[in-house]
Design goal:
The protein has about 120 residues and is mostly helical. It is about 55% helix and about 5% strand.
């Protein structure tokens, strides 16, 4: 898989109902999930990315902050923001997925129903 030229040609949709920080957060999370942004990859500084995307710096900062809270990225002060190692993130997500699967199964929910609930939850983000 080829490493993403982040942000490349991607730009947030100013006319979309989804907030700009959320569009950016999702874009980075998707690129990390599919391996296009590998662990250790340094993301552009907040001000630089904001200028490239035509966004306010606080918009990019919020996206980065939320990505850090979700353990998708790690901010290392002056060393910048980098994609977090996958093992810690995957361990946390695996634990959450196991808890959801266990709860859904205990309540008689089929895999298909559980997957649909998860899909609906994602669409509300």
């Amino acid at each position: 898989m080829e490493e993403a030229d982040f942000p490349g040609a991607w730009r947030p949709d100013q006319d979309h109902a989804t907030p700009l920080f959320e569009q950016l957060r999702r874009r980075v999370a998707d690129l990390v999930a599919d391996g296009s942004l590998p662990a250790g990859r340094r993301l552009p500084p907040v001000r630089s990315l904001a200028a490239d995307l035509g966004l306010a710096p606080h918009t990019v900062a919020r996206a980065y902050r939320e990505l850090e809270e979700a353990k998708v990225v790690v901010t290392r002060g002056r060393a910048g923001t980098v994609v977090a190692p996958r093992d810690e993130r995957e361990e946390e997500l695996t634990t959450a997925a196991s808890a959801f699967a266990s709860t859904a199964s205990a309540r008689g929910c089929s895999f298909e129903e559980a997957a649909k609930l998860l899909e609906q939850a994602y669409s509300r983000l």
